[in-house]
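Anyone up for a design puzzle?
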């Protein structure tokens, strides 16, 4: 009798063994270390040392880092035998995060190099798991009651499903962003998103671009700078306003950390759009406003 639609046991087992051997080889070659000064640049550009775009927004994260390093920020890097950074994780006390709660640390970002440029793609080989394990151990040693993280409910970067595979469970949602957590002790309280507040009024008669600048995410910083440049290039009919959400009180009043809105709508819906795409979108808003003014 021949059974169809089922995996071949021998082939499946051999594939699993090859994957485990590959992960074990990477794990043996990886060290997780606290961020050393010699790799500060790599951290500030999210390991994309080869990207001129990241260098263009370096000052945003540098300013945030100068503040956050004295207020509880923790950063770990995964490096190979040649001391090349392969991945990074940054986490903060919940009071510095877009969530609210007590006694927890929150992972703002975990990133393993996935581009063919630079050192190449090293994702899917256990580097992320090594970083997460090290961060959890560190948070426990600091007396944390648990660890939280945010993830996207989409098959892209920072997937919430990846955290769930590592024992995290969902507790709150905000659009496609899901807040997950792992309690370390009995009685730990679940975190919650800080709710988004109404968008501030802009200048009447103009296209209003309002940028909430949290500083910690270079991808969001790219969107900020491209929107700022587009607003300048399109002229005085476009108003560009920055709201500095590195100030916790300011953030709590608006509930938005890293976001750019064009007439109240988010500019970014996935990966950072190019400058041309940003200018085109703001320009369409400007053309519609002009047409309405002519009626």
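Challenge accepted. My sequence:
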């Amino acid at each position: 009798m021949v059974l169809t639609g089922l995996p071949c046991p021998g082939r499946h087992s051999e594939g699993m063994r090859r994957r485990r051997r590959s992960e074990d080889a990477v794990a043996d070659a990886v060290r997780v270390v606290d961020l050393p000064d010699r790799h500060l640049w790599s951290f500030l550009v999210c390991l994309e040392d080869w990207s001129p775009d990241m260098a263009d927004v370096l000052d945003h994260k540098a300013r945030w880092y100068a503040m956050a390093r004295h207020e509880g920020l923790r950063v770990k890097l995964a490096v190979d035998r040649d001391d090349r950074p392969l991945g990074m994780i940054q986490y903060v006390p919940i009071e510095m995060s877009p969530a609210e709660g007590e006694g927890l640390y929150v992972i703002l970002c975990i990133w393993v190099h996935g581009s063919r440029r630079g050192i190449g793609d090293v994702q899917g080989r256990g580097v992320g798991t090594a970083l997460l394990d090290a961060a959890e151990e560190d948070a426990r040693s600091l007396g944390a009651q648990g660890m939280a993280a945010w993830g996207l409910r989409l098959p892209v970067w920072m997937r919430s499903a990846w955290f769930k595979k590592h024992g995290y469970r969902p507790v709150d949602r905000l659009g496609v962003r899901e807040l997950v957590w792992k309690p370390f002790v009995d009685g730990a309280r679940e975190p919650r998103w800080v709710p988004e507040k109404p968008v501030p009024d802009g200048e009447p008669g103009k296209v209003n671009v309002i940028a909430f600048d949290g500083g910690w995410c270079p991808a969001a910083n790219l969107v900020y700078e491209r929107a700022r440049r587009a607003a300048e290039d399109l002229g005085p009919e476009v108003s560009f306003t920055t709201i500095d959400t590195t100030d916790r009180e300011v953030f709590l009043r608006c509930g938005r950390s890293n976001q750019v809105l064009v007439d109240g709508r988010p500019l970014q819906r996935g990966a950072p759009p190019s400058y041309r795409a940003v200018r085109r979108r703001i320009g369409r808003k400007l053309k519609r406003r002009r047409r309405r003014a002519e009626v």
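A detail worth pointing out: The chain has two domains: 29-193, 207-294.
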